[in-house]
Amino acid sequence: MTETARANLENLYRIFTVPEAPDSTLGAIDQAISKNVADFLQKHVVALERSLEDIEKDFSHSQIPDEPTFVSEYTTFVKEKLVAQSVHTAAPGFIGHMTSALPYFMLPLSRIMMALNQNLVKVETSKAFTPMERQVLAMLHRLIYAGEDSFYQQWIHDSRHALGAFCSGGTIANITALWAARNRLCGPRDDFAGLAIEGLPRALDSLNCAGLAILVSRRGHYSLGKAADLLGIGRKQLILVDTDANNRIDMASLREAYNRLQQQNIRVLALVGIAGTTETGHIDPLVEMADFAAEVACHFHVDAAWGGPTLFSDTHRHLLRGIERADSVTIDAHKQLYVPMGAGMVLFKDPHTLTAIEHHANYILREGSKDLGSHTLEGSRPGKAMLVHAGLSIIGRRGYELLIDLGIERARRFAEMIVAHPDFELVTAPELNILTYRYHPAWLQQQMANLDSQRRQHINDVLDQLTREVQKRQREAGKTFVSRTRLRSPVYGTQQITVFRVVLANPLATDDILEAVLAEQRDIVSSPDLQELLSSITDICQLTAPNCC
Amino acid sequence: MTETARANLENLYRIFTVPEAPDSTLGAIDQAISKNVADFLQKHVVALERSLEDIEKDFSHSQIPDEPTFVSEYTTFVKEKLVAQSVHTAAPGFIGHMTSALPYFMLPLSRIMMALNQNLVKVETSKAFTPMERQVLAMLHRLIYAGEDSFYQQWIHDSRHALGAFCSGGTIANITALWAARNRLCGPRDDFAGLAIEGLPRALDSLNCAGLAILVSRRGHYSLGKAADLLGIGRKQLILVDTDANNRIDMASLREAYNRLQQQNIRVLALVGIAGTTETGHIDPLVEMADFAAEVACHFHVDAAWGGPTLFSDTHRHLLRGIERADSVTIDAHKQLYVPMGAGMVLFKDPHTLTAIEHHANYILREGSKDLGSHTLEGSRPGKAMLVHAGLSIIGRRGYELLIDLGIERARRFAEMIVAHPDFELVTAPELNILTYRYHPAWLQQQMANLDSQRRQHINDVLDQLTREVQKRQREAGKTFVSRTRLRSPVYGTQQITVFRVVLANPLATDDILEAVLAEQRDIVSSPDLQELLSSITDICQLTAPNCC
Fold it and tell me: What predicted TM-score, i.e. pTM, was given to this entire model?
């Protein structure tokens, strides 16, 4: 062995055996985060936005470096180029996304999880993590379905059944639910071995139908489209049913859609209800949907990725009434359970449902083993369930209730602020803790009602442009952040309008911060080019209705 | 607000604003892991195994606790009940699974990643993490396909294309590859809008064929069966082709399988080559497979989840020759890139392939944006790519080469030890760093060749029982660990036998440790009940061939 080779080998062993010194560059950052993560993020995440094109220059090499880099050198790069240019998702003024500040205990517990590096696919590489994950699934199952003690005693650790599946997020959870629903509908019968074995085309023959469809409202999450594609159903068969004025599925339209499918001899694989739409936080009429699903005998899935934890609240739980009749429910842990990114779950009312997607392998997932991997879409998986277990234990039902109640109250107060301010327009009032609004100056609001639809449309187009521009500049300034989306408002008929979207899940987002968000937006609007944009509306109005502005 | 409510609210704010004190129970564990993770694991993970049924008792409550628990109290529970009963995956004597020790820098860097809590689905919640992840994909792409500088300059940050998809692991990577292959084969044509829109049954009509199939050897990973089910193809259409004596796909059998499908008018959606089978670490003849895929014009996917990083080695890279002709390649980062659990990738030769699964949504993933979420199966995802970026930068090509070379050399030495020991039988020799073997006493090996197949089968059944028992007791003793699987050995025809499976990826697994693994197995075999089991073979032989033993 050459001297260089020996030196390289020694260095290699070092990175596996010698911890980072506390006074090293990386050790110091580690300490700083341990001591005060909020302070660390405040100091190191740069507020003012560099353009993405500019940031890309720091990540443009496609060649893997030949020689090793010192950890200290790499850490400096991470600090200056990655951390500095990341998004301060935990900042209380960042109320545009579904990622909140994390409880402090999550970070040191995450380190334990990372250090243990368990693989939940099988007991041999996860041991106690397997029953722990099953317990988490049982706890969430019970939160939704409120079964008897004896039910959970029977199923919680039953190796041949599962109360749900833990996964990397709500998308995989929704896909898993629809996968199980599809395979159950197309199960073995007579000389047909089931869709899982024989495939979808043969399954349609067996069911003697022309296709399968999924029914959901227009506000359904984009993961459902992915599921329709992935499962071979086709996006065209994801039927987007019209909503009422409150973004809830319209039951009459649902029935019509169902009847149309019947006429085409298309079977409904699942009806999906939403408990907290991503864009507006509204909840579908779950009781009526459950009735309908029972009537037409189809799988009823509820996507409660966002709204599920509302079940913790004695005050607001009633909003989700009917969820306990769902065959499956998606809940994201990295949203309102305040767990770091990458944790979702799907729960199944009937512990037998997941057997429709069961699979085994020789070297792992042996039949009858307690390996969790036999009922999940993913294979190797980390022990993230530990952090859900920690949240449920440390925060408890009462703590989560407080978080939910706080968010909903704050959203209502924010809605009041918006309504109270003559130059803002509340587009969707919060049912949970999400609302949408836009800047719409009082003088324009007053005139708009009297204009014809063509001019209204034109004004909305200009306001859309304004909203986009305000949202962008606010984000770039880096002090506060709201997101934006496009949706229909009953006030403007079928025209989609662009709106600010606000999610109030961060308990540190105080009323002062909300006031500051509105103040900053007014401030941005007052800049000369945006005032000019607004006055272009006046021109248009003058052209066609001289006295309107 | 009542006094209790106020107190609860204050406590709630505390968990979001007050860091764990360094001298608290959790703070102390955090410090201990920072200082010396190996020492922490050594001290806290209990070697001796409790039964799973016993462990389950600690995780049997299905009710979420009403009231909060003190962090210190919960941490004590975690330490005593979860950490103590987890698996010491990093122990150098644990050579049965694909999870190795982690380089030390991974833990503090993981903490930075967790603290930032970015969501890679869209730029608005990940900023610099988006170009960083795209860079990682480009680096791995280049490792495999060795494109020109100009190629990567063009595509690395191109918003409408992707060189690959980052995901939670190899299973999602394989599914993504086959999903893209299926949709590309069944793309839009004439009045058919494509499978993604219209679904699989209409796609078969459009292609004028009776079904789709996936071809892979018998050693294919179980995720491919999941993919066949999920994608609506059906497990029956995952055609498992026979292997040669070295666990590599038999090309003549492949051609026969293909011809049979042709006769049934079934189109091949993808041919899958394996670079490092999960059970034996063998590599398919990728050049011949690439030729065949080109001849029949089908998508060629290589599952290099395990073996991909062999490309770092100047000495062993040639084993993977042909991989550069694959349309897509899976590589797991949590295997031989030494990243914590939950990181995989799929790379696509042609940057246009992933457009076959592209999807958009109003509030995120707007068309033309650089949001990574438009090309991934998963939705919200953590910034795990950062840890791959760190590994590639800090360890470098030379470092990974050393790790690969070390593992392969060590596996060869372990194979020599096994062969040298008269009471062990090497079942599959290592091509990479995986091998299988079993305990098979010399006296029995000598006789076995002369016995008829029925008696050989009987003896193998008894040896299977012995292997299972030894593996179980070794695991339970907790000092060392090998896994087990069942496979065919050319020596015993079509009968599957149970074998020990060893994976040598932990650079700290020295020769001494390997000797200790064998010594412990001999020791277990010497226990009276297992000796009795072995002597039952003598009885059988005496019964049917008195002089044989």
Answer: 0.96
